[in-house]
């Protein structure tokens, strides 16, 4: 009898555990998974809605139409009036949904004024129309970004650091979203140019000297008093048997942290890296979201950082100056730069500003949201001043704007398969930043010469508007 009671108790607790697990799964699905299922472009319920609802428009921040549904001789079709300008970020509905078309799928098929439209449908026969999605992107700035990338491989990102708004995001090579189906096979096979990849969010590159921002931040945080760092640069030096050279082996003489930064002295930063150590660099990098998810809702690839406290000096010196095995996306560097520009605080980047019903009512207006404190405010200010010196008297002079203080950092990233990649990260005005710019030009050579002038033109356009 006692054994029977024990067996009953076991069965009772087993079923109780199974019931609690089921309840837990249902709660997880309702509160965590359901938003993902709702917006999933493969959700069959959404696909069936498209038969009775016209997909809403996608617009820029001034109302310029980026995507719309119209009738042609073959029936309803999706059209992209700006052509290639927004190819990667807006995406397409051909060959599967991508970009904003995928992420905002539910919003574009949602009908908020259904009753009014139903009454109208009775008299006119018009289909129900989904809500319109209004982005933070600016069509004029996007067009300029694309023109500046013509004939080049690379990406451009422009952000508003105080809010997290993404103002421009361009990747090249690109494609015409109006002709995606016709060109699909050719685009899909083009491995040399990879035109379907959004390099701004999915491209991973060696950072080159823009990583010196992270190394400098790590030094400022160090308990070893590295703000008083001094080093005599002779143009080259040996670290753990590894010869490190400055650009063109140019000697910089005695440099402190600030001068080493604005002249982009490789040997000084190699020494600084060994002083900071692999563990400290790892801690700083991971706080700055390397090897971690980014606060971004569309597709992206995570940046990679591999140092540990057990790393050898050879790998530490290469990493500290931006080489080694570190890989980073333009999107991620935009977030790090935005945090510096915003006093150390990273605002969560966003690209959808709000929805609009067919009768002009605003819905779901995005409120800027603080994501995390990435830098101490004092360190962010120090890094800003160092970046201003880069543009005023260092490697970034081609990013100068008359009567405007620009903060920036150049990068020339070694590339084993060809010419170096050119980077520029920066913001302006330095004391009250309105825009952050990230430029990466594949095989562009010197960051100061190739990427700096592009950044200057984009910053000028934002500030002039």
Quick take:
The protein is an alpha+beta fold and 465 residues long. It is built from 18 helices and 19 strands. It has a domain at 208-352 and 363-464: Beta-lactamase, CATH 3.40.710.
The count of DSSP E runs of length 2 or more, i.e. the number of strands, is 19
**Percent of residues in helices:** 25-40%
Report the uncertain regions: none
Strand order of the largest sheet: 4-3-2-6-14-15
Average pLDDT score = 90
Cα distance, first to last residue?
85 Å
Task: Please describe what this structure looks like.
The chain is an alpha+beta fold and 465 residues long. It has a domain at 208-352 and 363-464: Beta-lactamase (3-Layer(aba) Sandwich). Helices cover 40% and strands 19% of the residues. It is built from 18 helices and 19 strands. It has helices spanning 2-39, 44-49, 87-90, 99-103, 105-109, 114-124, 139-148, 180-189, 199-202, 212-221, 257-262, 266-276, 278-287, 313-320, 330-341, 377-393, 447-450, 452-464, and strands at 53-54, 58-59, 65-72, 75-79, 128-129, 132-135, 154-159, 166-172, 230-233, 236-239, 242-245, 253-256, 345-347, 352-356, 362-363, 370-373, 407-413, 421-428, 435-441. Strands 4-3-2-6-14-15 form a six-stranded mixed sheet, with no helix packed on it. The N and C termini lie far apart (85 Å). The mean pLDDT is 90.
